[in-house]
Amino acid sequence: MGSSRSSLRRVPDGQQLLQETGCEPERWFCLGLRSEDLEAELSENPIGDRIVGAFFQPGQETVDFPSFVRVLAHFRPTEKNRTRDGVQPEPANSRNRKLKFAFQLYDQDRDGKISRTELLQVLREMLGLQVTEEQLQSIAERAIQEADLDRDDAICFDKFRKSLEKVDIDHKMSVRFLE
Amino acid sequence: MRTMNYSSTKRALAVLITCTFLSLPHGCNGESPHKPNAGATILPPTKPDNGPQAYPEDVPSNLPVFTMDYPRIQIPFEITLWMLLASFAKIGFHVYHKITIWVPESCLFISIGLIVGAIMHSVHEEPPAALSSNVFFLYMLPPIVLDSGYFLPIRSFFENVLWFAVVGTLWNSIGIGMSLFAICHIEAFGVQDINLQENLLFAAIISAVDPVAVLNVFEDISVNEQLYIVVFGECLFSDAVTVVLYNMFSFVAEMEVVEPEDVFLGVARFFVVGLGGMGFGVLFGFVAAFTTRFTSRVREIEPLFIFMFSYLAYLVAELFAISSIMAIVCCALTMKYYVEENVSQRSCTTIRHVVKMLGSISETLIFFFLGVVTITTDHEWNWGYILFTLLFTFLWRGLGVLVLTQIINPFRTIPFNMKDQFGLAYGGLRGAISFALAFTLPDSIGRKQLFVTATIAVILFTVFLQGISIRPLTEFINVRRTNRDIESINVEIHSRLMEHTMAGVEDLCGQWSHFYWKDKFMKFNNRVLRRVLIRDSRAESSIVALYKKLELQNAMEILDTVSGDISAAAPSLVSLEQEKKESAKPKKTFMAQDLKNMHNLLSKNMYKIRQRTVAFTSKYALPNDNQPREILIRRHASIRRSLRPGSFQSTIPNSQKYFSLPTGQSLGSKYPSARRSYADDHETMSEVAYPTRRSRFSQPKRSSSGAMMPLHRLGTLKEVPSTDFLNESQGESFGKVHSKPRTGSSHSDSRFPAHRRHFDPPVDNNNGSADDVRNEDEAEEEQQRQHRGALRPPPSWAAEPRDDTPRNPLLRQPQWNPKK
């Protein structure tokens, strides 16, 4: 454990980061070396720019290491049998926070709802060429219909979470090495 | 519906009757003592009458008009008949589809074998003595193993497959051997003469797991991927381990006295055999890869190299008595990676198909023989021994899985829960390998018959009972599945979004190259291996030809998809639109048909994620290669986007290379035929085709929605007269056709970031990222090739997105650096 202590000292807010994310900072150092490959793969990803955008706080143009770590902490596998007292804040990798991350990928303007246009944008990015605009509209329409409780043509976070309750989020949104 | 069932039943009946008739000649022999002396197989002549003793005694005075000479063709004839029979059986099963859902194929083959055996037995015919040790090990086993090895996902190594296979098999065999030896001491069973070595030998034989049936079931119910991968990989490696153990123990069993040092030597030998096999395999793999580097002119025999080298690896390993299975598997794994880059598209497909075919036939035949032999050999049945064997088999497998999972679970991201472990334990069916090993036991083993009987009993029990029951059981206990239920549109969209997110995040984290050794290996790979083993300067034509081939396939697919979907989906959607306009209701009601269409649309059109885990590959089917096409479609999308107004300036001449089908023009016209005729050429560009396509060119539609059938073809570089922007790229190996052949295309798997990055990156740095992907989705081997093919032509449009400054600092890269 000596090594981790020393690395904690090196990282600004190391102790706090450890507490927040539950993960030792030395692991995160390796991430810095990877930047040149980022672009290649992310550009392949249909929502690549959204993902990258999620790392930035609104209005900021740069991301520093702690924020980077904080965002990535969402993707740690969830530990099921950790006892939490009420004092601790919700861990970064809880199911709720994972869902919130996904929600924010849709919700670029951070108003707490996925509006129809936002949904359409995402759909357009994810779908191929063969889908016409009308089909896209119908799909978006249907999606909102299913999830919309308060008839305001948008999906709120609660309904988003509810519609995904059967999906194994923990499995889906966990990255292996972030132990 | 009823008529359909009726007709399919009729068909099934017809096929089954045909099968029976085919097998009749085998059994139909009036004179059993007349065994033609032409060799090992003893099938009777096909004519129901007196047959070949109609040799006239006297010299014929006239020219005989009609003669028959059966013994000459007997052996190949009988082999062919057996294979045909097996294949007909296979057709027969799939005709009536419902059977294969409930009864695994292995059961069916064994049943047919049993029937044929019964027929043969009733006419006192012996089974073909063709299944000797040599025939099995030299001819029947290699195709099966090659089949498994070629399609083995590399990722399985990371899923602790080796652990389960090697340690598990060891555990099983030693455990079963020891307990059986303990049983032997009980006098009541009368098996005291079996000593420890023989018990261990027998235990090694029946610990070979062959969960073919299980894999089919798992795939049908979409069990979670980790479990699937472990079972898949374990099957393969347990075969290897078993054969090694078998050889060891059979050697030991023939020794009179076993010293302690022999045990030590045995362990050492185990490692030598295993690692030696791997080493040989890798060596041969490299040689094969190197050879294919030079085969650009002799495309037709490219598949031959693959098969010959793998087989050679197998044989040489057999020569040195090291693990030939490991050799051939490692050879296939190594080879596949490099060879699939060197070799043409057609050869690639050929190789895969032939590998699958050979493996399938081999396995079928073995199960067949199993059924036949069951009936026709003399059995030595010993209740105690056999029942205890069954018991111990289950017991030790269950214990083994339990213990091993407990040990390995803390190291896994997603640990196996109890249901997974149950699936793993229950999926331990025994199969072809056990049977063949038992059947070819040396006769010096005293109780060989007992062993054979016991093995057959175990196999039959596991295959029939477990094979048939595993499906209801796994559904009942609800093994954790991959979530393939489509519950609602919402879920589907959101799930897909999350998957994309995860793929992106993993890329960010460098998940796959996080492992230090892997990183190092990848660097070594890029710098050294790829330069040596992969063809350096590829003929431009082949790249472009590959790309064109892809395009063609893509076009065909769009044709199929679009015509189907539009016709189905359009009416309802159109009617909905009208409804909307009329009533101006805020809510549309969606009919079930619309929902179905939507789901279809989504599932067909959503970009699939870069594979994080291996795709489900059935043992009897080829892996799915939709992904490379999809990447291609994505490229087109980005190209289209980049062609939107505002980005045109100097790119107009370049955009001449986009062939797009204006909307409204039917695809059924000359367009496909032109492409089809193209495809008939050997991978060279056809001069003829180009002018026709060029004439059909029109400005690409820029509206994002209107074009329903855009068919963008990145023009071949042949038509690019201007090379100015290409000059800006530094040392780039874009296969410019006739103007500037570039070299250094060991960066062949470049992933060219379409709309963001420009032309300057030397492409080899993308190796890292692409390699990561490749290493994780071995099942989609084509991806890399077609990436390369897809990426070569891009520079023509590369000039345009200059105004699209990267929005994120993370992505703003001034210069690509090759991986250090």
Automatic annotation (TrEMBL), chain A:
Coiled coil: none annotated. PROSITE patterns: EF_HAND_1, EF_HAND_2. One of its GO terms (biological process) is protein transport. It is found in: Cell membrane; Cytoplasm; Nucleus. InterPro entries: Calcineurin_B_homologous, EF-hand-dom_pair, EF_Hand_1_Ca_BS, EF_hand_dom. Keywords: Calcium, Cell membrane, Cytoplasm, Lipoprotein, Membrane, Metal-binding, Myristate, Nucleus, Phosphoprotein, Protein transport, Repeat, Transport. Residues 94-129, 135-170 form the EF-hand domain. GO terms for cellular component: cytoplasm; nucleus; plasma membrane. GO terms for molecular function: calcium ion binding. The keyword NAD does not apply. It comes from the Eukaryota. Belongs to the calcineurin regulatory subunit family. CHP subfamily. This is Calcineurin-like EF-hand protein 2.
From TrEMBL, chain B:
It comes from Poecilia latipinna. It is found in: Cell membrane. The chain crosses the membrane at residues 107-124, 136-154, 161-188, 227-249, 269-290, 311-335, 355-376, 383-404, 424-441, 450-470. The lineage of its organism: Eukaryota, Metazoa, Chordata, Craniata, Vertebrata. Residues 569-674 form the Sodium/hydrogen exchanger regulatory region domain. Residues 654-668, 697-706 have a biased composition (Polar residues). The keyword Ion transport applies. Residues 1-30 form the signal peptide. It is a multi-pass membrane protein. This is Sodium/hydrogen exchanger.
